Amino acid sequence: VIEYRLLLSGVEVFSAPAKAPKPAGAPQRFVVMGDCGAGTSAQRKIAVGISRADADYLVVTGDLVYTRGRVSEYLDHFWPQYNADAPSNRRGAPLLRSLLLLPALGNHDVIGRDLNRYPDGLAYFYFWSVPRNGPIVNPHDSSAPKVDGPAGAKEAFLQSAGTSYPSAGNYSVDLGDVHWTVLDANPYVNWRDAGLQRWLTEDLKRAQRSKWRFVSFHHPGFNSSRSHYDDQWMRSVHRIFEQGRVDIVFSGHVHNYQRTRPIRAGSRPGEWVLDTRFDGMKNTKPNGVVYIVSGAGGAKLYNPEQSDQADTFQGFTVRLISSTHSYTVVEVAGSTTVLRQISADGKELDRMVLTK
Ligand SMILES: [Fe+2]
Fold it and tell me: What is the mean pLDDT of the chain?
């Protein structure tokens, strides 16, 4: 734990403890949630739950703040809820002052791209500081989120965001035994582009020295919900994940919890081979990539009528829970990873053990 103090003109105005990243070889615990900053009571309850999880860091699978990713929206229903002075269901919890947060760009985070209508849009690029090691660095790149509006407003945005725009949409970072790759899955990014695929391939190649490889992005490549069913384009890079020996891919976008069987690509495009032997309890060595949707962090739940209704699932899905808001707690210790899905009321909804 690190203690830090914030001084204004030499006077202490704020102090807090912060968690330092765990070194390689040490057990670590992180929380994953998505689709969260909606100003709801569920959002605040989940913040309180997370504050009790004793996590080392927090991963957010996008749609950090609703509905247009504006500075004013962060001020109203993001910072107060995740940086309340004490945990309470009415206010939220003191998370951000003490925890590293790995953000991802959701669709709502980039809706405010018209600076004429939303002068404080694209707040993601002001607020989040992530490693500048992504593949999209030029504002004119066709896979960068396009900024619209009067020339003066665009100029001011570019100046304030600095090199964070557009680079912060994609990055990777090593945290102890875990390599994280975070991607922008919005449809303006062409993940069929050879250059982008090369970056992803190389990133995962370098990550082979890490014990575990996890990926986070917003739009899930495999989804059994009727909502956003047409938005599964990210499965087009599944082969790169599989060849890069990615263990788990985390997404949001669909406001519920979902877990797939371990998935491998078949010999023909669009053909998937499922590891039906893996159960995450007795058989814990997966043959393929497990895809998790953790998008039940505060916004209105999707398809509660499909919750636990296995006859409505695609073959790759083993769990779909949409009866309650929830978040994911993951513990990594040596060759074992334990994933638990926890409800806003603190109940364990699902559990999966992975070993290697
Ligand atoms: Fe969302």
Answer: 97
- Residue 31: which pLDDT band, with cuts at 50, 70 and 90? very high
Rounded CA-CA distance 191/308 in Å is: 32
pLDDT value for 258: 98
Separation of 47 CA from ligand 1 center, angstroms?
17
Neighbours of ion ligand 1 (CB under 5 A): 35, 63
CA distance 253 to 61: 8
Calpha distance 276→108 (Å, rounded): 35
**How many whole angstroms from 254 Cα to the centroid of ligand 1?**
6
Read off the pLDDT of residues 110-138 as tens digits, 9 standing for 90 and up: 999 999 999 999 999 999 999 999 999 99
Helices (H), the chain: 41-51, 71-77, 79-82, 124-127, 151-161, 164-167, 194-206, 238-243
Answer yes or no: are the C-beta atoms of 248 and 262 closer than 8 Å. no
CA–CA dist 172, 131 (Å, integer): 7
> Which two tokens mark 100?
């590293």
- Which token pair is 127? 């607020």
Residues 170 and 218 sit within 8 Å (Cβ to Cβ):
no
Cα-to-centroid distance, 63 and ligand 1 (Å): 5
Ligand 1 centroid from CA 253, angstroms: 4
Question: In angstroms, what is the span from residue 256 Cα to ligand 1's centroid?
Answer: 10
The residue assigned the tokens 């600076």 is 115
57 alpha carbon to ligand 1 midpoint, in Å? Answer: 21
pTM for this entry = 0.98
**What is the Å distance from ligand 1's center to 316 Cα?**
22
